[in-house]
Amino acid sequence: MSQVNHIGLLTSGGDSPGMNAAIRAIVRTALAGGTTVTGIMRGFSGLLDSEFVEMTPRSVSNIIQLGGTILKTSRCLDFYETEGRSRAAGILKEKGIDCVVGVGGNGTFRGLNLLGKEHGIRVVGVPSTIDNDIPGTDITIGFSTAANTALESIDKIRDTAASHDRLFFIEVMGRHCGALALEVGLAGGAEAILIPEVEVDLDRVDRIVRDGRQRGKGSFIIVVAEGALEGGAMAAAKGIKERTGVDYRVSVLGHVQRGGSPTSYDRTLASRMGREAVVALMSGETDCMVAVVCNEMKLVPLSVTWAEKKDTNLELLGVAEITAS
Ligand code: F6P
Fold first, then answer.
1. What is the reported pTM?
2. If you measure from the C-alpha of residue 288 to the centroid of ligand 1, how many angstroms do you get, rounded to a whole number?
3. What are the angstrom distances between the C-alpha of 55 and each of 29, 74, 125, 280, 294?
4. Helices (DSSP H) in the chain: which residue ranges?
5. Is the beta carbon of 107 within 6 A of some atom in ligand 1?
6. Which of 36, 160, 279, 308 could disulfide-link 135, Cβ–Cβ 3.0 to 4.6 Å?
């Protein structure tokens, strides 16, 4: 076992459901091992402003079921500057914090990596984003909840789409990654799914709608990842209207997908990952991210999370296409 005196804990980047369950697991595992934990408010921004909160077993009571993050979060540009990180390291040292656990995405992990390399602070990352776009881990905290939230909306839209025999374009989150769109497109029975990883072909969507109509289909759901094409679902809808003249409705699900009570899956995942992050530090590890690969806990170098692009499971596109035909 390696000496871990004092852990600084922060959440950073876009919040995702399950972050609180991770905070709870990290705090309680560390305290059970005799390590002090200080919460750092608002991610790296709060660190630079010395916004600290002492964490006790009771300060994480009744949060496992809450969406968002009790530590709050931000996207901090100052942390991309050497000067910002030097200042942060000075603040951490003054506070006696020798390790930092960061819960977030690969922007968070880059910050942790540089803080570790430049200032000798031991760092571990816990992957948490609704996008599930972090290489090295099969799954990230929040994806399951966001997918279920989006799916609930898609199911509701399907009711009204079917009643009016309408064509709906539903935009889900995902600027650079289509994982969420693929998941909910398939599970929601979408006739087409547009994602950033595959060049958008509106002529093809047009054919799907025309052929479907000839085969007696009344309503259509097209799921569009926000980054699939410039202008998102609205642009896709206008493109199809120009081709077919068919009337359409657009629904942008937006930040509703980031909130809400985490699913059982996300709470369990966050608890496992949070505990593992502390165990990793206690075992002397640093500069790594906790990952799940084939349902087993692993540690991967932080650098993996930005050196590669996560593979999107394009097989789901084929499954969605045949099952929605
Ligand atoms: O956290 C990931 C994510 O939700 C993306 O899916 C989305 O593109 C982005 O964050 C939105 O960020 P913001 O909340 O800063 O507008």
1. 0.97
2. 24
3. 12, 20, 19, 20, 32
4. 19-32, 43-48, 82-95, 106-119, 143-164, 179-187, 202-214, 232-244, 264-282, 304-307, 315-323
5. no
6. 308
Q: Return the residue whose CA atom lies nearest to atom 12 of ligand 1.
A: 14
3-state secondary structure 231-256: CHHHHHHHHHHHHHCCCEEEEECHHH
- Specify whether the backbone of 96 is left (phi greater than 0), alpha (psi in -120 to 50) or beta: left
Q: How far apart are CA 311 and CA 214, in angstroms?
A: 36
Residues 6+ apart with CB under 8 A from 55: 9, 27, 31, 37, 38, 39
In contact, 236 and 228? CB cutoff 8 Å: yes
Kind of pairing between the strands at 288-293 and 296-301 = antiparallel
pLDDT along the chain (325 residues), means of 10: 88 98 98 97 97 97 98 91 95 98 96 97 98 98 98 98 98 97 98 98 96 95 98 97 92 98 98 98 98 98 94 95 93
Residues 6+ apart with CB under 8 A from 72: 11, 41, 42, 43, 46
Q: Is the dihedral of CA 271, 277, 280, 281 positive or negative?
A: negative
Name the residue type at position 274.
Answer: G
Concerning whether 49 is annotated as a catalytic residue, the answer is no
Residues 6+ apart with CB under 8 A from 1: 282, 283
